[in-house]
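Folds abound. Consider this:
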Amino acid sequence: MSMLSAIHLRKEYANVVAVDDVSLNVEGGEIFGLLGPNGAGKTTTIRMIMNIIAPDRGEVQFKGRAFDETARNSFGYLPEERGLYRKNRLLNTIVYFATLKGMTVAEAKRRAYDWLKRFDLLAYYDRKVEELSKGNQQKVQFIISIIHDPALVILDEPFSGLDPVNQILLKDILLELKQRGKALIFSTHMMEQAEKLCDKICLISKGKVVLEGGLSEVKQRFGTNTVQLEFDGDGSFLSKVRSVEHLILYENTAEFEIGSQSGPGEILREIAQRVNVKRFELREPSLQSIFLKMVGHEG
């Protein structure tokens, strides 16, 4: 039995269908990526799962039962639109939200101190929220979403505003929650983060599911004729190389598919005449390239 099931969800606003027949199942002990470009319907889907808005059609089940208010304390939610009481003090803010989830003040303070220490925020416990940087406010919001030890954690763009060090810290904590059997829904349009973390994905485009399944299975579905290239030099010529298809080009790296007209050896020889090749690896496509292939015309 899935921890969470969303079944044929639909939501329409003023003749615009925001979510159209979206279904998903999330198990305990897994990170589920709800992916898509901006405006694809990810946040609307999450709001229906959280019972913040009601679907026009479909239903949400938690542990096999229809969602109701008794299940709410089993959820943790980090919304995309961050909202903290800016004039309140940091510890008081965390404790207040924890008590809304049924915790005692004493237990909330104990856990709050533990999490503030983990996020290197203990020195700020008596500061006003508005005195914190954007990244530190983000960490406080995350603490609020998990302090009550929820079974299901829903995170809408959780890495937004975090520097690389804190992105690694958050990633480690998400993996810890997964190992403890929590179900996590990770909504993002940042494919690199999703590829590192997710066990399963559901890609939404224009409110519809266009791709879903286990991450490794999805990548295998798109074949193994993708080249990941590292080089020194000017790679702009790659767009004109015969059989280089679906090119994603950066300063010193590229990813592309090999067309049927040429083999990898022939393409490598041609590329090596123009730039210094540091790595030429034939492998499954990245989630970023799959994303662009499926919804590259959007966002």
About this structure: The two ends are 35 Å apart (CA to CA). The mean pLDDT is 90.
